[in-house]
Amino acid sequence: MSDHLSAQPDTLLPLETALERLLAWAVSSPIRECETLSLADADGRVLAEPLIAELDLPPWANSAMDGYALCQAEVRGEPLRVSQRIFAGQAPGPLQPGSCARIFTGAPLPAGADSVEMQENVELLADGRVRFSQPIRLGQHVRAQGQETRRGETVLLAGTRLGPVELGLAASLGVAQLSVIRRPRVAVLSTGDELIEPGLPLGPGQIYNSNRRLLCSWLQRLGCAVLDAGILPDDLALTRAKLGELSEVDLILSTGGVSVGEADFLGQALREEGQLELWKLAIKPGKPLTCGQFRGVPVIGLPGNPASTLVTFALLARPYLLKRLGVSELTPLHFPVPAGFAWSKPGKRREYLRARLEQGRAVLYSNQSSAVLRSAAWAQGLVEVREGTTLAEGDLVNFISLSELLG
Amino acid sequence: MSDHLSAQPDTLLPLETALERLLAWAVSSPIRECETLSLADADGRVLAEPLIAELDLPPWANSAMDGYALCQAEVRGEPLRVSQRIFAGQAPGPLQPGSCARIFTGAPLPAGADSVEMQENVELLADGRVRFSQPIRLGQHVRAQGQETRRGETVLLAGTRLGPVELGLAASLGVAQLSVIRRPRVAVLSTGDELIEPGLPLGPGQIYNSNRRLLCSWLQRLGCAVLDAGILPDDLALTRAKLGELSEVDLILSTGGVSVGEADFLGQALREEGQLELWKLAIKPGKPLTCGQFRGVPVIGLPGNPASTLVTFALLARPYLLKRLGVSELTPLHFPVPAGFAWSKPGKRREYLRARLEQGRAVLYSNQSSAVLRSAAWAQGLVEVREGTTLAEGDLVNFISLSELLG
Predict the structure, then answer these.
(1) How far apart are CA A141 and CA A121, in angstroms?
(2) Is B374 found in the same domain as B351?
(3) Which of A404, A406, B68, B209 would staple A332 via disulfide (CB 3.0–4.6 Å)?
(4) One domain for residues B319 and B366
(5) Which domain holds residue A134?
């Protein structure tokens, strides 16, 4: 009988509620320590302070075209002589009155010039003068100083995740180093006596541990310092000791061990020396989720089936971690696409199906079992089928690209 | 006059044609050398050989539920005694005839059992026997051996880019190391006398080099070994010498220096000791593109305006590089979304506009100048407006998420 008692009441927690709670929890334990890194080392990190422009961009008015710089008011049908040639990188003297300057893309406009005519529209005379036959609009083909960015403007907010574009933008402002949040330290633990590491021979009843590799690589992409903490021992004292060793990390992430059949030493340790909540999520795959802390260290326990691990990490643990770093953009882009399948049986839980786009329609991997990671390797994204709904082919479903989630 | 002569004929090359040519060029110089890496080191790399399953997944039939394993033919209304308890990780003995086995999720089915009834559907009797009152379907709640994957099946194709999911999948098959294509060596060169490195004081007429940071970080994300080759000197002999130093790389990627106004020593060096093609692409931003080789080393010259660099790298240089590694999935996912803007003037070139999704509509950054990298940092993706078309608000446009392109 005792086997059945540990089953929890069957109240399902909506994904939104679970996420709200996790984010509120994240806000209560922000990671704020910073370090200063060169741009080359800052890819994937989170900006600790806003990036404020200390110069105008462009820093001076320049030509958007290969052509001729001139003072628009001086163009009255008479050809102008060319008084100077200005290449990018040069610092030109002032424009001589009644003349124009040969100018190339990106080169600074000389003082006294206010417009550029492109070379295709002018006539070069034999005496070297230039005839402007088309009407010239004041300021045409000129990139004004500060047109992109003005000194003092906030260009990137604190909490921005830095990628090649943001780093390039910082470089364009002359910034060589950025203050970023330190890497969060995350310990990855597996539970399950049946797990064995790849490379070792498989004994009877054993399976290879795939979640550890999935999570360790994923966490590294999120900028985490990952501590591979191995397999949680099947013993309360050893579990306590193992958790105690992890007092310096920001998060303990475990997988598996939430099935009724497994002796729940992790849960017991958390109950005794911390806090434990067991949620039954209204999503599929990924029903059981553990949240809590051990001696003050946050613990998230993901379900152990690989597709469940993937979905719960993507939708819950990932935003939780990013939130602790101060990241504000947490919702992955998603797109309505026509379903290339029918869904006739409304579910109690929201389904996250592994899918690809074929001719603009979301098609499903044949085996959507939570035990099957191959579905996710085949897939380009997750298709969301909301609880209590049925779908006909062609109905719109939400598609979240895996590339949005995996970085 | 000579200034104008170097202008090229105004034939625009469609993006598809340019990409086709680049991919054909890539196929002619594949990078095939491999190295064997542990899974922990293989994230972002390209699989050199197909991954073939050397075991069934699951390796043995197991229970998908917490419940009772039994032989379906033996259930005839009479309660069954429980002859053993099987946890995940155990190797059970055969099922005694006329009995059932207590079994937990993931645990191996004992020989002689063919079905599982979940615990919620049984009645435990006072004498310890179990009554099965619901009809039992043969094989129910059993994950059959090889249900996910059969030994000998190809699980990942050569040319697959490895990420957390693929690495987890390899781990699930017991594979600890993978053969991957070696990192491509890419030299990044900038041209432009006006460029100065971030961190240094800005002199008159100078601007900070942002493309180098953009490209170096991006190339690293693509698994490249990046050689930062600095600024290309404004002198033919020095250009030759610099290019000559790069004989060991797989690709020289340069930015800038294709404007008519700049002395084109790169082009001259390529013409004399290699090959040079200058394309005018029918895209905006990103018109001018240089392709060629110097003493056999492929060279791609991207335009120097940051948004042009970004778009041409994303749409042309990125797939070219991945193709040389044997990657087959080169087309980024794209989604039709309603335009949150109108486009009244049909263009000659296809536009790639920096955009965000707001309430499901693509909205544009206010300044779409090719000189403006800030637009891309603000953006979530590129919106494609095809040449020769106009758009009303709500018309569908192609949206390519930047996360698809940047990894």
Answers:
(1) 13
(2) yes
(3) A404
(4) no
(5) 62-143
For residue A338, report the phi and psi dihedrals to the nearest 5 degrees: -70, 135
Domain boundary among A181, A206, A227: A181
Residue A262's pLDDT is what? 54
The three-state secondary structure class of A224 is coil
SS3 content of chain B, % helix, strand, coil (to 5): 25, 30, 45
CA R_g for chain B: 30
B191 touches chain A (CB under 8 A): no
Residues A303 and A204 placed together within one structural domain of the fold: yes
- Domains in chain B: how many in total? 4
Q: Please say if the pLDDT value at position A138 is more than 50.
A: yes
For residue range A37-70, list pLDDT tens digits in order. 999 999 999 999 999 999 999 999 999 989 999 9
Burial class (CB in 10 A: 0-12, 13-18, 19+), A111: exposed
**Which residue in chain B has the smallest CA separation from A171?**
B210
Q: Which residues of chain B have pLDDT under 50?
A: 1-8
Same domain, B267 and B395: no
CA distance A320 to chain B (A): 19
Question: Is B166 strand, coil or helix?
Answer: helix
Q: Is residue A330 part of a domain?
A: no
Top residue of B100, B354, B374 to mutate, by most chain A CBs within 10 Å, is: B374
Same structural domain, B215 and B304: yes
For residue B8, the chain A residues in CB contact (below 8 A) are: none
Residue percentage of chain B with pLDDT more than 70:
96
Two tokens at A226? 């990952």
Residue-level pLDDT at A106: 86
Contact B401 A333 (CB under 8 A): yes
Give residue B98's region: left, alpha or beta (phi > 0; psi -120 to 50).
left
